[in-house]
């Protein structure tokens, strides 16, 4: 069994990675609290994988980046980083988390939080044409009216901020507060609660980006991550890879077979879905859930899922160095049927699995709700849901 570049044996590293994935700690640190992206990674897991399988200066890719946990952790550890996600909301969030602010932007944002936000008044007339925006569908009931109006007014006031970076940052604070105020709640927050929370959130985010910016500047040779708003299928055609750059390590979590996640909606007023996050971030929407999940919930065979997964894995393999590791966390609705197909895809795309050398080829599983891990024999099935897999590009 291969050992890692940093010394310890693969078995030792595998156990470390498995233990880090077991963490029950809340997601904190760096800029991770900017937005609760659905199905996001534990930063502790990503940090452990980075430390075990890469060195400063290495190129790290997350082809299903989501809210950017991998790119943030990679940049903080002086790795070069590329993230890719077809969801424009994911790219918006990851960009806000990795874009340092200058002193005048910071000053303007804090003044906005201190002077403008507390004065946003429900009774003020809003001229924002977004009131007629399709992305506001289902954001209509009396329970959400106050929050919606304050968001409208806040979006108008953001125009006065001095740069695009500052405006995007303020929108991200609004997105964070909007998620807290509207998503999955029985009744939305009041206007007063919303204003207070928005000011406090923005101040906290400014503090976090200041510290993160310092970590980025400690290593002037490391650029901000390259963020690609496109399918991983198109990675090989990107000019960055066209000019010969190759990936040293992949850390990722793909869409899961048979498990559908609402990456692109909030739920308001019971379970009504709203595209309000795209309205706040000013990004395009219009895609159904199947677009983000590699296929429709209605399709029982999962053929579309496995075809899409194979295409993207082949695209990822094409931009990796031979011998580079691919570490992923993946969940299954029915591991007994889906795991073998998933592993076949990995093999077809040019990856060989790294297993513990204890003679039984154990893998590491986790029950999603119970958060406990089990090592089971290769090929056996169980009712647990999530799995950490380590592969080598061959
Ligand atoms: C499980 S989430 C990743 C969450 C991420 N690890 C985090 O910490 O936020 C999977 C992501 O894959 C993205 N995705 C789905 N199909 C894709 C494709 N063809 N290319 C790139 N990203 C895709 C989805 O939009 C979703 O954001």
UniProtKB/TrEMBL annotation:
<feature type="domain" description="DNA methylase N-4/N-6">
    <location>
        <begin position="6"/>
        <end position="89"/>
    </location>
</feature>
<dbReference type="InterPro" id="IPR029063">
    <property type="entry name" value="SAM-dependent_MTases_sf"/>
</dbReference>
<dbReference type="Pfam" id="PF01555">
    <property type="entry name" value="N6_N4_Mtase"/>
</dbReference>
<protein>
    <recommendedName>
        <fullName>Methyltransferase</fullName>
        <ecNumber>2.1.1.-</ecNumber>
    </recommendedName>
</protein>
<keyword id="KW-0238">DNA-binding</keyword>
<dbReference type="GO" id="GO:0009307">
    <property type="term" value="P:DNA restriction-modification system"/>
</dbReference>
<keyword id="KW-0949">S-adenosyl-L-methionine</keyword>
<dbReference type="GO" id="GO:0032259">
    <property type="term" value="P:methylation"/>
</dbReference>
<dbReference type="InterPro" id="IPR017985">
    <property type="entry name" value="MeTrfase_CN4_CS"/>
</dbReference>
<dbReference type="GO" id="GO:0015667">
    <property type="term" value="F:site-specific DNA-methyltransferase (cytosine-N4-specific) activity"/>
</dbReference>
<dbReference type="InterPro" id="IPR002941">
    <property type="entry name" value="DNA_methylase_N4/N6"/>
</dbReference>
<keyword id="KW-0489">Methyltransferase</keyword>
<dbReference type="InterPro" id="IPR001091">
    <property type="entry name" value="RM_Methyltransferase"/>
</dbReference>
<dbReference type="GO" id="GO:0008170">
    <property type="term" value="F:N-methyltransferase activity"/>
</dbReference>
<comment type="similarity">
    <text>Belongs to the N(4)/N(6)-methyltransferase family. N(4) subfamily.</text>
</comment>
<dbReference type="GO" id="GO:0003677">
    <property type="term" value="F:DNA binding"/>
</dbReference>
<keyword id="KW-0680">Restriction system</keyword>
<keyword id="KW-0808">Transferase</keyword>
């Amino acid at each position: 069994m291969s050992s890692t570049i940093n010394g310890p044996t693969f078995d030792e590293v595998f156990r470390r990675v498995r233990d880090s994935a077991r963490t029950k700690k809340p997601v904190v640190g760096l800029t991770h609290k900017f937005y609760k992206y659905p199905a996001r990674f534990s930063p502790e897991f990503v940090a452990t994988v980075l430390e075990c399988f890469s060195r400063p200066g290495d190129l790290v890719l997350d082809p299903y980046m989501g809210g950017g946990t991998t790119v943030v952790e990679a940049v903080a550890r002086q790795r070069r980083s590329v993230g890719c996600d077809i969801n424009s909301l994911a790219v918006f969030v990851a960009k806000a988390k990795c874009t340092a602010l200058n002193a005048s932007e910071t000053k303007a944002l804090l003044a906005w939080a201190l002077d403008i936000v507390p004065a946003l008044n429900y009774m003020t007339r809003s001229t924002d044409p977004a009131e007629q925006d399709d992305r506001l569908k289902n954001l209509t009931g009396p329970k959400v009216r106050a929050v919606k109006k304050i968001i409208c007014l806040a979006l108008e006031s953001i125009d006065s901020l001095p740069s695009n970076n500052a405006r995007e940052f303020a929108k991200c604070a609004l997105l964070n507060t909007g998620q807290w105020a509207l998503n999955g709640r029985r009744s939305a927050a009041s206007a007063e609660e919303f204003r207070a929370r928005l000011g406090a959130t923005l101040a906290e985010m400014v503090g976090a980006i200041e510290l993160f910016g310092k970590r980025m500047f400690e290593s002037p040779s490391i650029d901000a991550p390259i963020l690609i708003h496109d399918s991983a299928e198109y990675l090989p055609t990107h000019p960055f890879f066209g000019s010969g750059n190759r990936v040293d390590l992949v850390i990722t979590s793909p869409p899961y077979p048979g498990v559908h996640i609402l990456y692109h909606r909030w739920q308001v007023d019971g379970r009504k879905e709203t595209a309000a996050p795209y309205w706040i971030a000013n990004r395009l929407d219009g895609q159904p859930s199947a677009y983000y999940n590699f296929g429709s919930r209605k399709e029982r065979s999962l053929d579309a899922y496995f075809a899409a997964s194979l295409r993207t894995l082949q695209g990822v393999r094409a931009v990796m160095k031979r011998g580079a590791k691919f570490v992923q966390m993946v969940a299954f609705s029915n591991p007994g049927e889906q795991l073998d197909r998933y592993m076949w895809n990995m093999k077809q795309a040019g990856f060989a699995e790294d297993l513990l050398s204890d003679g039984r080829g154990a893998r590491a599983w986790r029950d999603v709700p119970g958060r406990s891990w089990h090592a089971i024999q290769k090929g056996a099935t169980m009712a647990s849901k999530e799995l950490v897999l380590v592969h080598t590009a061959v």
